[in-house]
Every structure is written in C-alpha cells, then in structure tokens.
Amino acid sequence: MFGRRRLDKKIPELNTTSTADISFVLLILFLITTSLDPDKGLTRILPSLSYDETLKPSQIEQRNLMDIRILADGSVMCRDKQTSTNELKDVLKNFIDNPSASDSLPEKHLTDIPMLGGCMITDKHIISVETHRDAPYESYFKVHDIIDKAYRELRDNLAMRKFGVTFAACNENQHEAVEKYYQQHISEVYNTEEKEKKP
Q1: How buried is residue 76: exposed, middle or buried, by Cβ count under 10 Å (0-12/13-18/19+)?
Q2: What does the pLDDT read at residue 62?
Q3: In angstroms, rounded to a whole number, what is the distance separating the alpha carbons of residues 167 and 150?
Q4: CA nearest neighbour of 110 among 92, 96, 123
Q5: Which residue from 157, 188, 197 is spatially nearest to 47, judged by alpha carbons?
Q6: Contacts of 105 by beta carbon, 8 Å cutoff, 6+ apart
Q7: What is the mean pLDDT of each run of 10 residues along the chain (199 residues)?
Q8: How far does Cα 85 stand from its chain's mean position?
Q9: How far apart, in whole angstroms, are the C-alpha atoms of residue 21 and residue 103?
C-alpha cells in the first residue's frame, strides 16, 4: 500500500504592495471632491491703531449717532428706548437712509459716485453697539445680524432701482458704487468694570 503523500503546500499570501498606493489615491480623491464649508463670522473693519485718527464721542454730532445697548438680560435699548428685535431693522434702515432728510437723523451730503452721479448720502452716520459683559451671545449676534440685514436690504433696493439686479448680482463697479452710497459704519463699545460700577 502506498502511503499518503503529505501535503506541505503553503497558502499563498495576499500581495499588499499596492494597497498603500490605492489608499493614497483614494485619500486625494476624497480631499478633492469633498466640499469644505467656509468660515462664518461677522465682517467688520477695525479702527486705526493711531489714537489721533480715532474720533472721540464728543466729536460726533448726536444726530449722526445711533447707540444700541445690549443689556445683561439680552434686551435691546436703542437711543435709550426699549426696542424689540423685530422693529430694530426698520429703525436702522430709517436712520441709515434718512429718506425724509429729518433734522434728528444723520445729515446728508452731496457726493459724486461713479455710475450713480451726484447723490445725497448719510456718509457720517455711526451705529454704536454697546454690549454688557454678561449679555448672552445670542442677543449679540442677533443684533449684528439685524444690522447686516438693514444694510443688505437698503443696498438691494438701490441696486434694483439703478441697475435692475440685486446687490449680490452686481458687477465689481456697481458693487463699489452701491457700497459707497450706503457705507457701513459700526462701532463696538464694551463695558469696563469701572463703568459698570457707576450707579
């Protein structure tokens, strides 16, 4: 009788030399095809570091200043009057535009703007936002969002009247013209400990 032959065969191993290359190619593919959300935030132009170039509150005419205060409980005061966030946008639009040329609202100056010609604009208005240190973040961002919406609606209306498109759809020259007509002037004020201690 013949004895059984012993099978000493080894199972072949999987060839993994190209696995690293495939992983690298897939990684690059995912990086290219994945859309990353852009950073979100508030666009603000910071004042100059030079103290001499900064306007002091006493140098600003009261009619040109819209003071908004966010209190510790999140409520909003606009020109020392309790204001709801719903009506704040309309108050701001009226302040920025001053359509009736009121003496109690920002003064208007005749300015020559390319593509728009001679325009009466309120280029010296300032919106001052004073936030209490204990005010909730939600109230702070809500107020700034309302300010941005007020400017955006005014700019959209002007762009539609003059160019027949929204502000976002304007070309570069139209964009600059509309921005110059409705210039954004926002000042941030924060309570210091000394100021808060005052009765």
Answers
A1: buried
A2: 87
A3: 13
A4: 123
A5: 188
A6: 63, 94, 95, 98, 122
A7: 57 71 85 72 53 53 90 90 88 92 90 91 90 89 92 94 92 93 86 46
A8: 17
A9: 73
| DSSP letter, residue 35 | P
According to the model, what pLDDT value does residue 6 have? 57
- Residue 96: CB atoms within 10 A of its CB come to 23
Using CA atoms, how far apart are residues 159 and 115, in angstroms rounded to an integer?
Answer: 11
Distance CA 164, CA 124 (A): 27
The residue type of 73 is D
Give residue 9's pLDDT: 64
3-class secondary structure, 14: coil
Global pTM reads: 0.68
Write down the pLDDT at residue 194: 43
Contact yes or no for 150/92 (Cβ under 8 A): yes
Residue 95 and residue 157 in contact, taking contact as beta carbons nearer than 8 Å: no
